[in-house]
């Protein structure tokens, strides 16, 4: 991974982690929370793996190939779920998830 | 994953996390620390992914297949490194790593 | 912290982390999820700090006093919330939280 | 915590986590690693609490007062250790740690 790809990946992971935690927090306050349970679950899964990978990349993990691959899978699943919901926080989260999945796949 | 496999996986992850953190702590106190740098690195990688996966399994993550696969890879790498060193903490850590890799692959 | 207190603390943290993640997962499947939102939030807070502290204690953190104090606070808050709900998973989680708070305070 | 303080805290935590992981990775490659063992330990402690707190703040944790307080303590300890070493990565890490401790105390 070149220095620029590394920086871009860190940035994408950080934005995705932020967006997922914000969406998680907002979903728990929605009136239609019953419809948001998968979104709440996937937001946490996605925030946790992005946060994990961010640290791993920063410490020069030798396992970046396997970890970016699983992170891309989780980001896509979370993005697909968020995309279904009209709430602004869900739509913004979906965008961050898809951007992060792309950054993981290019890393 | 059946209930028994689930319990066995949680147990193996917990023991591996414990052994890796103990080995990390002990390596940092060894006289021959220069020879232990890969062990220190891999102990942290392995402790972190085991701790991560333990929580993910406990909350019913939908990504257990991908996560157990990457965890098995990291456990094996850590076990192979620890196996090279005669220190008791390294040998015990290697055993915990290989047992955890097996539990991940059977999950 | 003596060796027995150390082992007891690790055990209590592990059981609390497990119970909180199970309660989190179960709350997200409850019919009355609207009433469970604080429980979902606190289960995650508590699972995350217990998992964090477990690793920190295992690696001989020099910050155990400050970390066990904040963990006890979070465990008590989660236990108090869970105690309000009749669901079995909430009652069991409350017990694990209070036991863990006690272990943190005795450490 | 106002919106600007929140943004500033997230930024400081992220930069401190990045600097600590970079310093950890670089210390493990130093010739004088024997002198760097406390730095390696504290870099990990500090990276882990900053990463933890970043997520907690982003999801609106109700425990921000207790968590920022313990994070400030750990950042200061890590900054004080790093400050002793002339390596560029240690000096840059010390700066990030002290800035993060300040952000935690103002939050």
UniProtKB/TrEMBL annotation, chains A, B, C, D:
Transmembrane segments: none
Tree of life domain: Bacteria
Listed InterPro entries: Csp_YhjQ, YHJQ-like
Pfam annotation, one family: Csp
Signal peptide from the UniProt entry: none
Coiled-coil residue windows: none
Name of the molecule in the record: Four-helix bundle copper-binding protein
Native organism: Virgibacillus salarius
